[in-house]
Amino acid sequence: MTKKLAHINTADTKLKKAFTLAELVLAMFISSLIVLSLAESFRNALTILEKIQTQQQTSHHIRNISELIRNELAGTYFPVLDQKNAPVFTLNSTDNDSAMEFYTLTPAYSVHPSQSKISRLRYRFAFDPNTGQSSLKRYQQYFAAGKPISNELCDEILNTTFQLSLSCKIKNENDQWRQNFQSFTKLPQAVKIQLSIKDNNDNNHSAETIFYIPCNQQVNNDPNTE
Fold it and tell me: What DSSP state is assigned to residue 114?
């Protein structure tokens, strides 16, 4: 009798330790919820990381372009040109096309300004409606004694979805910003750079830089032409 009771108690204990089908299904369901929750959290973390990296890259582009143009405008000067009808500064800017040309003592794109040579620089921004892409190209030609001593070199600074607007302020013109200016005798008082880049998530990142040109007095190369 005692052996039978012991056998029954052991069987009951084994039954109590086993899981029922309903308990297994419930456990699997809860485990699936946990796994899905972790996967969603991981996906959200990756999305946030990609956005941060894109924003950092976009900010990097904006900062580099602004600093490059600022450094080269800092060395703007009046060359004694051995060419007729050669303006010392030209700016034409629209929504889809902008160009700026000037002479500088400190070209700073590929070399340190202290190791650079006198150059004529030309920046060209253009928007391609067929591809929706924009490009910013920089042209450089070395000068010596008022004459070009090299072919014009071209570098593509940026090719992505962005907008670039340039404008300049002329001294004694009621502080008005102009998007079109050409002069044979003087430089603008300041140049304003407005740059907006759209990242992979269609978010716009914008920056505006105003740089006052140290040398903006008038020269007498040809006072009748401007």
Answer: G
- In a domain? residue 37: no
Instruction: Note the pTM of the prediction, 2 decimals.
Output: 0.70
Q: How many whole angstroms separate alpha carbon 148 and alpha carbon 140?
A: 10
Instruction: State how far the Cα of 122 lies from the Cα of 164, in Å rounded to an integer.
Output: 15
pLDDT value at 222 more than 50: no
Token representation of residue 48: 């946030």
pLDDT digits (tens, 9 = 90+) for 150-175: 899 999 988 877 777 788 777 666 67
Q: How far is CA 144 from the centre of its chain?
A: 33
Domain that holds residue 108: 55-212
Q: Does 9 fall in a domain?
A: no
87 vs 102: CA distance, rounded Å:
8
In a domain, 48, yes or no: no
Helices then strands (H, E): number in the chain? 2, 11
Distance from C-alpha of 52 to C-alpha of 63, rounded to nearest angstrom: 16
The count of structural domains within the chain is: 1
Most distant CA pair in the chain, distance: 130
Q: With respect to residue 96, please indicate whether it lies within any of the assigned structural domains.
A: yes
